[in-house]
Amino acid sequence: MTKTVAAYTNSIASDEAGTDLARQVMDALGPEGADVLIVFASSRFDYPRLLTALNDGCRPRIMVGSSSAGEFTGQHRGEGTACALGFRSTDIRAAAGLGRGVGGDRAKAAAAAVASFQGIGAANLPFRSALVMTDALAGHADELVRELTVLTSGSYQFVGGGAGDDAHFSSTHVFFGTQAYTDAVVALELLSSKPFGIGVGHGWTPASAPLRVTEVDGTRVISLNGTPAVEAFEAHAAASGQSFDRAAALPFFLHNILGIDTGVGHQLRVPLAVNDDGSVTCAAEIPSGGRVHIMKTTSDSAIAAASRATRAAVDALRGTPPAAALFFDCVATRLRMGNDFGFELGSVTDLLGDARMVGCNTYGQIARAEGQFGGFHNCTAVVMVLPA
């Protein structure tokens, strides 16, 4: 049996917010409290104070999470807030680990994050998943997911994302116990005799002819088709009747992102800014030599994609009812959709029924699951459902 609670607070003071979340956890789960608490919190908070008050109030065995750029449950959503998913279960075994130095050594950080995992030898718990939250500003998230996959022999599903900081893009944190860390990754192992469900979807389609990535430097796309990358966006803006300002390009970029052609779909990357040399900085790396398209979407397409992802996650439970769900989507999606983002969240909660839902807007989304489009994404809805 799995008992769950979705907690949300509008409290401004860090101590009060932690105490409020803890009270909701204890009210829902009783004196035994939570085995696991997953926390997402705005950058406005003093994280050690928030997490210490939360820990003191409900004493979870494991507490992990990250800073965020928009927080929500099935009943609430906002910015500058905090939320938590707590659960106690006789069917799910959990462990957690922290890896530091993601920006310098992904292999070492990944190894530390999964050092406490026990799933490889747990034959009676064949369904293995992990929540992975990373400091996206440290970069190399795609490589980190690959390292985690190798270290776990490809036998785990992964879900999660890049920590946020309310769209300031200055400093992001992951939570492990009562402490918050930059340049780090936290991983929560979840083992069960019942399957976990993961669904992935985005509503973007190609709007331009294919473009060859001719030169890159990390997250900076230097040239497309042999010319400065910005010129491809300027040409697309002119052809599609949109305005484009190099000095203030983000409003255009939110509606015109890049899609890496993988042969089975498009892996999305959000452009963030134009540099003086005409290169374009993106939210995550793009491989040199690959083909990309400038992509388009609508609010209706994003809502439909979130619905598809949720259905896929619920279907993957193979008939077991959902107990709770984690939902992640990009901060760029929230900024682009505005109030329509509430309709996207509504489409998810409607399909989950009575299952608790908690999530946040992230700087990129992580998903690796059988039959799903895996890796590190931008502007993509990712759903993980825990079995009842």
Short description:
With 388 residues, the chain is of the alpha+beta class. The protein has helices spanning 14-29, 47-58, 106-113, 141-151, 229-240, 250-255, 299-315, 331-337, 341-352, and strands at 2-9, 36-41, 62-67, 71-73, 77-78, 82-89, 92-100, 127-134, 157-162, 174-176, 179-181, 184-192, 197-201, 205-206, 211-217, 220-224, 227-228, 258-261, 266-269, 271-274, 280-282, 291-296, 322-330, 356-362, 365-368, 375-377, 381-387. The strands form 4 sheets. Strands 14, 15, 16, 17, 18, 19, 20, 21 and 22 form a 9-stranded antiparallel sheet that branches.
Description:
The protein is of the alpha+beta class and 388 residues long. It has two domains: 2-201 and 301-387, no CATH class; 205-296, no CATH class. The chain contains nine helices and 27 strands. The strands form four sheets. Strands 14, 15, 16, 17, 18, 19, 20, 21 and 22 form a nine-stranded antiparallel β-sheet that branches. The chain has a six-stranded mixed β-sheet with strand order 1-6-2-3-10-11. α3 (106-113) crosses α4 (141-151). The longest helix has 17 residues, at 299-315. The model has no long low-confidence stretch (mean pLDDT 94).
The helix/strand class is alpha+beta
* Count of strand segments: 27
* Separation, N- and C-terminal Cα atoms: 6 Å
Helix count? 9
The main β sheet shows up as: 9 strands, antiparallel
Helical proportion, percent range: 25-40%
The shape is: globular
Radius of gyration: 20 Å
Strand content: 35-45%
Report the uncertain regions: none
Report the average pLDDT across residues.
94
Number of domains: 2
